[in-house]
Amino acid sequence: MKADPAVQRRLLDLAEADAELNRVQHRRRSLPELEQIGEAEREVRAKRDELVVAETAFNDIEREIKRLENEVEQVRKREQRDRDLMASGASAKQLEDLEHELETLARRQGILEDEQLEVMEQREALEMNVTKSREALSEAERRLAEVQERRDQALADLEVAHTRTQGERDRIVAELPEGLVALYERIRAKGGIAAGLLQGSRCGACRIELDRTALIEVRDAAADDVVRCEECGAILVRTGENR
């Protein structure tokens, strides 16, 4: 294949554009924010679990408080009923039984009220745990939102770089002969660098020194011959000093 030396040199610009596109893609995959988001998401999940535990314990104590309140209310109603019976003119035997029951109810009410005080203290501590858990969750969610925003900004910047470089690449390709572009793309499809500058005896694509025989063949080739590295297959772009 033949191509004007100046046209061949444009392949270096094309290779650099492809290298930049690869760098952009690599940066997309390896943004530090991606790992940070994973850590922040795990922290948010952990804080949500902690909040669920705290709220469950708080709801349990609320139900216990409600149960005790109901029991105290029942004892008070029973006490009031007994006192009403006593005031209605009960017999001596009934009065004795009612007085005994009132003593029992008083003891029961005292026990229940002591339990109420205890669970109210527990409720205060558990309510504080819920508040702290909610604050911790809010802080974790804030940190997650911040790192997501940084990721989005980084991706937006990379998208700008990708669009700009892709545009440059498209312009270069439009300037080159179709056959040369097709050869370049076939080489690039194999996963390597498709064009490199011949620097002395070294291929600019694979960085390997050409052996003496290959170097002589390259230097003896016509200026418009499209020559390739025998090691990596890349198009070797020559300048006047290495022909």
From TrEMBL:
Domain called CT398-like coiled coil hairpin: residue spans: 14-192
Coiled coil: 37-164
Superkingdom of origin: Bacteria
Domain (C4-type zinc ribbon) ranges: 202-236
InterPro entries: CT398_CC_hairpin, Oxidative_Scav/Glycosyltrans, Zf-RING_7
UniProt keyword terms in alphabetical order: Coiled coil
Name by which UniProt lists this protein: C4-type zinc ribbon domain-containing protein
Native source organism of the sequence: Saccharopolyspora hordei
Lineage: Bacteria, Bacillati, Actinomycetota, Actinomycetes, Pseudonocardiales
